[in-house]
Amino acid sequence: MSVNKAILIGNLGRDPEVRYLPSGQPVASFALATTEIYTDRSGQRQERTEWHNIVVFGKQAELCGQYLKKGRQVYVEGRITTRQYEAKDGSGKRFRTEIIAQRIQFLGTRSEVEIEDTADVPPPPADLGQAVDDDDIPF
Fold first, then answer.
1. Is residue 1 part of a domain?
2. Which of the 8 DSSP states describes residue 4?
3. Given a cut of 60, is residue 63 above it in pLDDT?
4. What are the helix (H) ranges across the chain?
């Protein structure tokens, strides 16, 4: 028996991008930040932000595109997958680890979203979607 399940609560690092597959099925993608706060051995408060690539299909993708904005807090439940594709510039294979969302729940209120938009959340690193050319992604 095996289990592949990820459960995350975090804040969007950018507005969702909605695309459509050739079949017409909507697909939304966005970066989600989860932050861990801890005290190190010397007693100093430390903060570490982890970035996750989220992919949503179907009606949920359309809803994400409509209602989610950068900074909004969401609950994501899904499976972890890594896909491989060939870089368009011919530089070789690329890998991308993503959470394929099966359930998304919008958290917080609209007024909280406006506050979170100005929150001190660091931008996602370049390797999480911003450095990947749209042409490199196979869908």
1. no
2. -
3. yes
4. 59-67, 110-117
